[in-house]
Amino acid sequence: MVLQWTLWGTDVSQPVKLPMWVEAAIRGADESGTKIWFGLRYDPSFIEKLKQNGSTYLHQRLQETSRLAKALKSQILYVSSEPNKIFAGWYISDEIDGELLLDSNLRKLVTRYTTQTRAILKSILPGPVAISGYTDLKSKPKKLAGHWDKLMSKSSMDILLLQDGLGAKLMEPYSSRSLHNAVSTAFRQQKHTVIPVVEIFEIDPRTADFKTIPTTVGTMKSRLKNVRFAPGNPVALFSLSSHVLKFDNKHSRDIETFLKQNAKVCNGLELETANTSTPQ
To answer: Which residue has the higher pLDDT, 99 or 126?
Structure first.
């Protein structure tokens, strides 16, 4: 499970005050055997501040990242003496868009920022580090893939969570598949990997602001198929908390039912494999 962010919008206070739900999430993971990727702070003005203040802003973010990561580690250890049973890795909540990658100056700043962020996180609680990206650029898949590959290599990132852009209407199925195919191909010989993020929502046409509602389970399946190039490829769904847990309509219930049935099938296959490999 990926916690997209621990804090949203506001600056990190001193001392850091984690939301009450963080402990509940950690306890739930501990009791259910689930591992969590811990997101940090999501700043909705990240790109704007990066363009305006550059290194000064990023230096501030690095300092707060250290404080927040230490607070999260303390909370994990408060719940469990074995953090690796809960901790899957770190997730940098700042989303990198295609425009940042195509601007050479901003790309250098982002590369330095992600490199330093990874070093800080690994020093506090070792584990893989993931970042996420999205784009509405439909015509430059190979160029974007090349920039993503270089960013991941230079910053020694482990995982790129790449949004399919279909729910947000940033991409069309063909352009989304072309981008994911290009990135997957570029990463093939590297240590880092890409995991497609399938958006399980639609924009709510009844609201003027950007608000979303659950998509149909049929649409979700078609989007899963669109970005998977082999049956074993991992995928992520965005987002269960917003479009399954908080909603109670036909689409959200259908998605929940599908995921539960899928989990039973996967568990059954794992059990069958384990039984087959057990010496008689």
So the answer is: 126
Provide the number of structural domains found in the chain.
2
Measure Cα distances from 127 to 37, 97, 132, 189 in Å.
10, 25, 17, 21
Together in a domain, 4 and 130: yes
What is the rounded distance in angstroms from the CA atom of residue 277 to the CA atom of residue 58?
51
Do 119 and 47 lie in one domain? The reply is yes
| pLDDT digits 0-9 by tens, 23-72 | 999 999 999 899 999 999 999 999 999 999 999 999 999 999 999 999 99
Give the residue among 44, 47, 1, 60 at the shortest CA–CA distance from 26: 1
- Residue 138 CA to residue 225 CA, distance in Å, equals 19
173 and 130 share one domain: no
Q: What is the pTM of this model?
A: 0.90
Both tokens assigned to 2: 């990926």
Q: How many whole angstroms separate alpha carbon 220 and alpha carbon 201? A: 8
- The structure tokens 């719940």 sit at 79
Q: What is the DSSP letter of 245?
A: I
Task: For residue range 192-210, list pLDDT tens digits in order.
Answer: 999 999 999 999 888 877 8
235 dihedral zone (left: phi>0; alpha: psi -120 to 50; beta): beta
Residue range of the domain that includes 178:
165-256
